[in-house]
Please model this.
Amino acid sequence: MGITEFIEHTVLRPRLRQRGCLVVYDPERRYKELCVQLMNEKVQLIDASNSSLESRSGALMALRALGANHGKDLDGMVVYVPSAKPMTPEAMQRDPFALYVACGEVFPEDDADEYLNLCLRAKPDHATAIRQLFHANPSPTFAMVDSVGGGISWPQLKVLLGTDSARDILFSLLVPTKLQLDALKSSDAWAQEAKDLFAASFGCTLRTKGKTHSPICDEMWQTLLFSEFAFDLPAELPAKLSDVMRSASEARPLVDDLCDRLRNDNRSRAIYVERAMRVEQDMGLPEACSHLDDLGIRNTFLFEERTFFFKTAAALMADKLDDVRAPLARYRSSVWVSVGESQSQWAVMESALELVEQCDDFDRQLLDNSKTQLALVDFYTSALREVDRAHREFEQAVSGLLLEPGPIADVVAHARSKYRRLSELIQASFMQHLGQGSWPPIGRLANADVFERFVAPHLKHAGTRVAYFHVDALRYELGVSLEKLLAEDAPVSLQAAFAELPTITSVGMASLLPEAGTELRLAFEGGTLVPYLADSIVSTVAQRMDSFRKRFGARFSEMRLGDFVQTKESVPMHVDLLVLRSVEIDSQLENDPQETISLLPKQLSRIRVAVNKLRAQGFNHVVIAADHGFHLNASAEAGDVCMKPAGQWDYVAHDRMMLGLGVTDSHNVVLQSVRLGIRGDFASAAMPKSLAPYSRGLLYFHGGASLQEAVVPVLTLKLEVNKPEPRVVDVTLTYRNGAKRITTRRPVLEVLWSTNDMFELDRTLEILLEAHDAANEVVGEPRGSMVEAASGLIHLQPNVRLQVPLKMSEEFEGKITVKVLNPQTLVAYHAMQLETDYTV
Model:
């Protein structure tokens, strides 16, 4: 189809049929003959070329006739105006033919109707040649345009590859399927066609003399990738690369389109990565471009990613946060997210950005929201705790990352310093109010009243079954994350409670016992702190569980949370009160906070699994409580320690509080124990004014008084016994087109949720992804922006492939089973066997 036929049949005639009236503005008088061809016995042409007055009169009469006879004698009118289309309201008021534009259609209507764009649409297979023609002659004739491409139609390539358009042929030559490659191997007669197509499309000539697919494909890949890189480079190409063949500048839209398609198409993504890395290495691009600090924005090659990362890190360090967001958004969809160690560093960058933003925002809000103790507490529980969440998730992202000197270490230090500064401001305000007030805050929920308030009332009713979770070190912001997780399965309510001081496990767990609000007291015996409930010692787990057993007898049972999740046995029906104990958060962070903080999402998920299991076993209510919170002191420095106040101190609680007798000084607050809700043998309690402990080098601590340590969550759920049948879910895992060996500790898996159910198409599917060894221990967990930091969940869209990086344990090598798990039941949707084959 020639350009005139294309414009007439795909642009002008359809618009004329649409409204019956078409106004053509043509200052170059290019389309007059086309308008004449539209005229027939039922279509009238009004030509404004000669007499404006006659054309106005004729147009008005034609419009009246068109409206009056309803197509009997006239079913269309074309108004040809040899002047520019009016673009402003004022110009339209002066234009006598604007009336007909309002009544009908107009040409040109928008940028798509520009002459160049019409020609590109008419000859998409020769876009580069069309652009070259317009570059040489801004207004080529129709004949010139029709001469582009001649009769070339690539017949052999169309048949062999089973595709029609030039772009699809080029794509298939670059990444042929097995059937297409076999067809190309059957003959070499297509080779010259391929070279001609390449020349017509890219404006340059392949130099290879080869007639087989391999050499032609290799040169096509190098030219394509280098062309995109060169087009995007803001500076001049290095002298070493200036003579390397690249596409004509007019081919840039085709180059960019093909590269985007190759990177984004799941069938070609892995091949693109392999080809780009080979071209980068063969051409020595990192060395040739080592002096350049701006490589543009298109991520053609892997070495460019480092430059982007360094610039982003510098922007974050300078608090130019807008300059951090754009590269982060680009990297989320980058083909290089699945390659190398950079994915972990970008995840840290993203977490650091959120943490810095949170710190800056709340720094501005703190003064207005901390004028009283209750105002500060309410600010913390409603909003300020988000800073602790952002910091925890940031440290989870940093966990396991090798922080060698350089940009990533600087980013980590910068984000930590922001959090440290804000945390100290919050703590200073908190301690000032505590020194003038009391603990728990007057009128607020004391943790020692949780059992009587939330558990005991349910047990008054026969047949009501209650599960009471004792979770060690579940601080308030974790409770908020847990609330969001549990809300997927049942209505849940969250309240803030205020922990007993000192915030250590033996005291905090004792405060969760029956009648703790009135009967709990502390004694100093044998050099240690001993909690009593009335006259009974409740220091150990066994002693605390005995207090329940004495009160409820056979109606009571208890076990560790992990045992409950794993056991296949049901809780006996005569048990109305089940206490589930979890110490994993505290024990993991006590042992190695920097490495084990990434395990926190697993503990929250385990609670969710337990809740769903309780529902299945007929429990009616769930109450989740904690003994104390914690503070992460990841930016601890050599001098980060508080000097102890003068006095006689009988007991030091986890290096954050001392009990005995002494006086306040410049570094410490000393208060009467009774003001802090501490009943027992101690007259006073001393606490650091800052978040520093009494010992050096503590990265994780609790025991003292701070919002992070002493504000804890209470979550309550009412369970519906009837639960819908589980959905049948088709989830599959793949790794590198079926490979069974992983050669890196950061492998990238592809997850696909397939469904044809129309009711599923607007939903998401929650999954957990874990790599297990032969003993069913977790040796690999997902990383990246697609993983919820608080829960470890991944949300799948229906029929959309998602690439998920795994972080494998540094110590493990051997066979693994990667599982896609239902987060409610831990039942596997899919499992895949792999084996490590690391290159050292």
Q: What stands out?
A: The mean pLDDT is 90. The longest strand covers residues 828-836. The radius of gyration is 36 Å.
